[in-house]
Design brief:
single chain, mainly beta, YmcC-like fold, 15-stranded antiparallel beta sheet, two-stranded antiparallel ribbon, 2 helices, 5% helix, DUF3108 domain-containing protein, DUF3108
Length: 260
Protein backbone atom coordinates (compact mmCIF):
# COMPACT_ATOMS: atom_id res chain seq x y z
CA UNK A 1 0.00 0.00 0.00
CA UNK A 2 2.73 2.43 0.92
CA UNK A 3 5.69 1.10 -1.00
CA UNK A 4 5.22 3.02 -4.03
CA UNK A 5 7.74 3.22 -4.79
CA UNK A 6 9.92 6.06 -7.36
CA UNK A 7 16.80 9.58 -18.02
CA UNK A 8 17.19 10.88 -21.15
CA UNK A 9 17.42 14.60 -21.92
CA UNK A 10 16.78 14.76 -25.62
CA UNK A 11 19.12 12.08 -26.98
CA UNK A 12 21.77 12.51 -24.29
CA UNK A 13 21.90 9.72 -21.68
CA UNK A 14 22.11 10.80 -18.06
CA UNK A 15 23.71 8.57 -15.46
CA UNK A 16 21.56 7.17 -12.68
CA UNK A 17 21.98 9.41 -9.70
CA UNK A 18 22.33 12.74 -11.51
CA UNK A 19 18.91 13.68 -10.17
CA UNK A 20 19.04 11.52 -7.06
CA UNK A 21 22.35 12.91 -5.80
CA UNK A 22 23.04 16.14 -4.02
CA UNK A 23 19.70 17.93 -4.23
CA UNK A 24 18.96 19.96 -1.10
CA UNK A 25 15.50 19.79 0.35
CA UNK A 26 13.26 22.62 -0.79
CA UNK A 27 9.91 20.81 -0.82
CA UNK A 28 8.98 19.74 2.72
CA UNK A 29 9.56 20.57 6.37
CA UNK A 30 9.42 18.98 9.80
CA UNK A 31 5.88 18.75 11.12
CA UNK A 32 4.34 17.91 7.76
CA UNK A 33 1.59 15.30 7.82
CA UNK A 34 -0.40 13.99 4.83
CA UNK A 35 -3.31 11.56 4.97
CA UNK A 36 -4.68 9.51 2.07
CA UNK A 37 -7.77 7.41 1.50
CA UNK A 38 -7.40 4.18 -0.45
CA UNK A 39 -10.24 3.21 -2.78
CA UNK A 40 -10.49 -0.36 -4.05
CA UNK A 41 -12.31 -1.73 -7.08
CA UNK A 42 -12.86 -5.13 -8.67
CA UNK A 43 -15.64 -4.37 -11.17
CA UNK A 44 -15.36 -0.60 -11.64
CA UNK A 45 -17.08 0.55 -8.44
CA UNK A 46 -14.60 2.02 -5.97
CA UNK A 47 -15.09 1.59 -2.22
CA UNK A 48 -13.20 3.32 0.59
CA UNK A 49 -11.09 0.36 1.70
CA UNK A 50 -8.26 1.88 3.73
CA UNK A 51 -6.11 4.83 4.66
CA UNK A 52 -2.48 5.86 4.94
CA UNK A 53 -0.65 8.65 6.73
CA UNK A 54 2.87 10.04 6.29
CA UNK A 55 4.32 12.20 9.06
CA UNK A 56 7.68 13.91 9.24
CA UNK A 57 9.78 15.10 12.18
CA UNK A 58 13.33 16.36 12.68
CA UNK A 59 15.58 14.12 14.80
CA UNK A 60 19.23 13.08 15.16
CA UNK A 61 20.75 9.70 14.37
CA UNK A 62 24.48 8.92 14.62
CA UNK A 63 25.13 12.60 15.35
CA UNK A 64 23.48 13.64 12.09
CA UNK A 65 20.36 15.73 11.69
CA UNK A 66 17.74 13.59 9.98
CA UNK A 67 14.19 13.80 8.74
CA UNK A 68 12.30 10.94 10.37
CA UNK A 69 9.44 9.89 8.10
CA UNK A 70 6.82 7.43 9.35
CA UNK A 71 4.27 5.91 6.98
CA UNK A 72 1.36 3.88 8.32
CA UNK A 73 -1.17 2.17 6.08
CA UNK A 74 -4.09 -0.12 6.87
CA UNK A 75 -7.18 -1.56 5.30
CA UNK A 76 -10.50 -0.66 6.93
CA UNK A 77 -11.49 -3.40 9.37
CA UNK A 78 -14.76 -4.05 7.52
CA UNK A 79 -12.77 -4.97 4.39
CA UNK A 80 -10.02 -7.00 6.06
CA UNK A 81 -11.69 -10.15 4.79
CA UNK A 82 -10.84 -9.07 1.21
CA UNK A 83 -7.19 -8.21 1.82
CA UNK A 84 -5.95 -7.23 5.27
CA UNK A 85 -3.14 -4.67 5.32
CA UNK A 86 -1.22 -3.37 8.32
CA UNK A 87 1.96 -1.64 7.10
CA UNK A 88 4.47 0.59 8.84
CA UNK A 89 7.49 2.10 7.09
CA UNK A 90 10.11 4.39 8.62
CA UNK A 91 13.12 6.14 7.18
CA UNK A 92 15.74 8.50 8.59
CA UNK A 93 16.96 10.84 5.84
CA UNK A 94 20.16 12.87 6.12
CA UNK A 95 19.13 16.54 5.97
CA UNK A 96 22.40 17.45 4.22
CA UNK A 97 21.92 15.34 1.08
CA UNK A 98 18.55 13.56 1.40
CA UNK A 99 20.18 10.11 1.49
CA UNK A 100 18.76 7.46 3.84
CA UNK A 101 20.59 6.60 7.06
CA UNK A 102 18.22 3.96 8.39
CA UNK A 103 15.14 2.17 7.07
CA UNK A 104 12.59 0.07 8.96
CA UNK A 105 9.74 -1.91 7.44
CA UNK A 106 7.07 -3.96 9.19
CA UNK A 107 4.29 -5.15 6.91
CA UNK A 108 1.35 -7.54 7.00
CA UNK A 109 -0.29 -7.80 3.58
CA UNK A 110 -2.87 -10.52 3.09
CA UNK A 111 -1.14 -12.69 5.68
CA UNK A 112 2.32 -12.09 4.24
CA UNK A 113 4.46 -10.63 7.02
CA UNK A 114 7.87 -9.04 6.60
CA UNK A 115 10.23 -7.10 8.84
CA UNK A 116 13.31 -5.30 7.62
CA UNK A 117 15.92 -3.10 9.29
CA UNK A 118 18.64 -1.47 7.19
CA UNK A 119 21.55 0.74 8.24
CA UNK A 120 23.12 2.75 5.39
CA UNK A 121 26.76 3.85 5.47
CA UNK A 122 27.20 6.60 2.90
CA UNK A 123 30.97 6.79 3.24
CA UNK A 124 31.46 3.06 2.66
CA UNK A 125 28.54 2.65 0.21
CA UNK A 126 27.10 -0.24 2.22
CA UNK A 127 23.72 -1.35 3.52
CA UNK A 128 23.73 -3.55 6.61
CA UNK A 129 20.79 -5.88 7.31
CA UNK A 130 20.35 -8.93 9.53
CA UNK A 131 21.45 -10.94 6.48
CA UNK A 132 24.83 -9.23 6.12
CA UNK A 133 26.60 -6.23 4.64
CA UNK A 134 25.76 -5.35 1.03
CA UNK A 135 27.60 -3.06 -1.36
CA UNK A 136 25.36 -0.32 -2.77
CA UNK A 137 25.93 2.43 -5.35
CA UNK A 138 26.23 6.12 -4.59
CA UNK A 139 23.01 7.90 -3.71
CA UNK A 140 21.06 4.72 -2.93
CA UNK A 141 17.48 5.23 -1.77
CA UNK A 142 14.99 3.16 0.20
CA UNK A 143 11.28 2.81 -0.56
CA UNK A 144 10.24 5.79 1.55
CA UNK A 145 13.22 8.12 1.13
CA UNK A 146 12.88 7.90 -2.65
CA UNK A 147 9.40 9.46 -2.43
CA UNK A 148 10.66 12.45 -0.46
CA UNK A 149 13.72 12.83 -2.65
CA UNK A 150 11.56 12.78 -5.78
CA UNK A 151 9.51 15.66 -4.40
CA UNK A 152 12.59 17.84 -4.87
CA UNK A 153 13.08 17.05 -8.56
CA UNK A 154 12.67 20.01 -10.91
CA UNK A 155 10.29 18.45 -13.41
CA UNK A 156 10.42 21.60 -15.55
CA UNK A 157 13.77 20.33 -16.82
CA UNK A 158 12.16 17.36 -18.55
CA UNK A 159 10.01 16.56 -21.52
CA UNK A 160 7.18 14.03 -21.54
CA UNK A 161 8.50 10.45 -21.76
CA UNK A 162 11.89 11.33 -20.20
CA UNK A 163 13.17 8.83 -17.62
CA UNK A 164 14.69 9.89 -14.29
CA UNK A 165 16.66 6.90 -12.96
CA UNK A 166 17.57 6.01 -9.39
CA UNK A 167 18.77 3.01 -7.38
CA UNK A 168 16.79 1.54 -4.48
CA UNK A 169 17.79 -1.06 -1.88
CA UNK A 170 15.08 -3.48 -0.77
CA UNK A 171 15.03 -7.11 0.40
CA UNK A 172 18.84 -7.29 0.32
CA UNK A 173 18.98 -6.29 -3.34
CA UNK A 174 19.75 -3.18 -5.39
CA UNK A 175 17.07 -2.30 -7.94
CA UNK A 176 17.73 0.10 -10.82
CA UNK A 177 14.46 1.95 -11.25
CA UNK A 178 13.19 5.17 -12.78
CA UNK A 179 10.37 7.67 -12.94
CA UNK A 180 8.92 8.28 -16.40
CA UNK A 181 7.76 11.89 -16.63
CA UNK A 182 4.39 12.14 -18.40
CA UNK A 183 3.86 15.90 -18.42
CA UNK A 184 1.38 18.21 -16.68
CA UNK A 185 -2.40 18.13 -16.53
CA UNK A 186 -5.39 18.99 -14.36
CA UNK A 187 -6.52 16.14 -12.11
CA UNK A 188 -9.77 15.93 -10.17
CA UNK A 189 -9.61 13.95 -6.92
CA UNK A 190 -11.93 13.32 -3.98
CA UNK A 191 -10.36 16.38 -2.32
CA UNK A 192 -10.50 18.81 -5.22
CA UNK A 193 -9.20 19.85 -8.62
CA UNK A 194 -5.46 20.52 -9.05
CA UNK A 195 -2.80 21.47 -11.54
CA UNK A 196 -0.58 18.40 -11.39
CA UNK A 197 2.65 16.79 -12.52
CA UNK A 198 2.15 13.27 -13.83
CA UNK A 199 4.66 10.41 -13.87
CA UNK A 200 4.89 6.62 -13.86
CA UNK A 201 7.37 4.91 -11.50
CA UNK A 202 8.94 1.61 -12.48
CA UNK A 203 7.83 -0.71 -9.68
CA UNK A 204 9.33 -3.79 -8.09
CA UNK A 205 6.78 -6.61 -8.11
CA UNK A 206 5.48 -7.29 -4.60
CA UNK A 207 2.58 -8.80 -2.67
CA UNK A 208 0.21 -5.97 -3.66
CA UNK A 209 1.54 -4.26 -6.76
CA UNK A 210 2.44 -5.64 -10.14
CA UNK A 211 5.85 -4.78 -11.56
CA UNK A 212 6.49 -2.43 -14.46
CA UNK A 213 5.06 0.99 -15.30
CA UNK A 214 1.44 0.26 -14.43
CA UNK A 215 1.17 2.80 -11.61
CA UNK A 216 0.39 6.46 -12.35
CA UNK A 217 1.14 9.25 -9.86
CA UNK A 218 -0.02 12.88 -9.85
CA UNK A 219 1.78 15.36 -7.56
CA UNK A 220 0.93 18.99 -6.95
CA UNK A 221 2.36 21.42 -9.51
CA UNK A 222 3.64 23.76 -6.82
CA UNK A 223 6.83 23.76 -4.70
CA UNK A 224 5.41 21.14 -2.28
CA UNK A 225 5.08 18.37 -4.91
CA UNK A 226 2.79 16.38 -2.60
CA UNK A 227 1.11 13.26 -4.00
CA UNK A 228 -2.49 14.02 -4.95
CA UNK A 229 -3.64 10.81 -6.61
CA UNK A 230 -2.16 7.38 -7.31
CA UNK A 231 -3.82 4.81 -9.58
CA UNK A 232 -2.63 1.26 -10.04
CA UNK A 233 -3.77 -2.28 -10.71
CA UNK A 234 -2.99 -4.64 -7.85
CA UNK A 235 -2.94 -8.43 -7.55
CA UNK A 236 -6.76 -8.51 -7.57
CA UNK A 237 -8.58 -5.44 -8.87
CA UNK A 238 -7.25 -1.89 -8.78
CA UNK A 239 -6.83 1.01 -6.38
CA UNK A 240 -7.00 4.78 -6.32
CA UNK A 241 -5.26 6.68 -3.54
CA UNK A 242 -6.33 10.29 -2.95
CA UNK A 243 -4.83 12.92 -0.66
CA UNK A 244 -7.57 13.85 1.81
CA UNK A 245 -5.87 15.89 4.52
CA UNK A 246 -2.64 17.80 5.07
CA UNK A 247 -1.01 20.06 7.62
CA UNK A 248 2.20 22.04 7.96
CA UNK A 249 3.13 22.07 4.29
CA UNK A 250 6.20 24.15 3.57
CA UNK A 251 4.35 26.29 1.01
CA UNK A 252 0.71 27.16 0.24
CA UNK A 253 -1.01 24.51 -1.86
CA UNK A 254 -1.20 26.93 -4.79
CA UNK A 255 -1.85 24.17 -7.34
CA UNK A 256 -5.43 23.70 -6.06
CA UNK A 257 -8.00 25.07 -8.51
CA UNK A 258 -11.13 24.19 -6.55
CA UNK A 259 -12.17 22.27 -3.44
CA UNK A 260 -14.24 19.12 -4.15
Amino acid sequence: MIGLAVLALGLQPVKAGDDFCGIRNQAFQAGESITFNVFYSVVGLYINAGSANFSLSLEHINNKAAYHVVGNGSSNSSYDWIFKVRDRYETYIDTANLQPLKFIRNIDEGGYKKSENIIFNQAANTATTPNGVFKVPNCIQDVLSSIYYARNIDFNRYKPDDKIPFAMFLDNEVYNLYLRYMGKEVVKTKYGKFRAIKFKPLLVKGTLFQGGEKMTVWVSDDPNHIPLRIESPIVVGSIKVDMMQYRNLRYPLSSMISFK
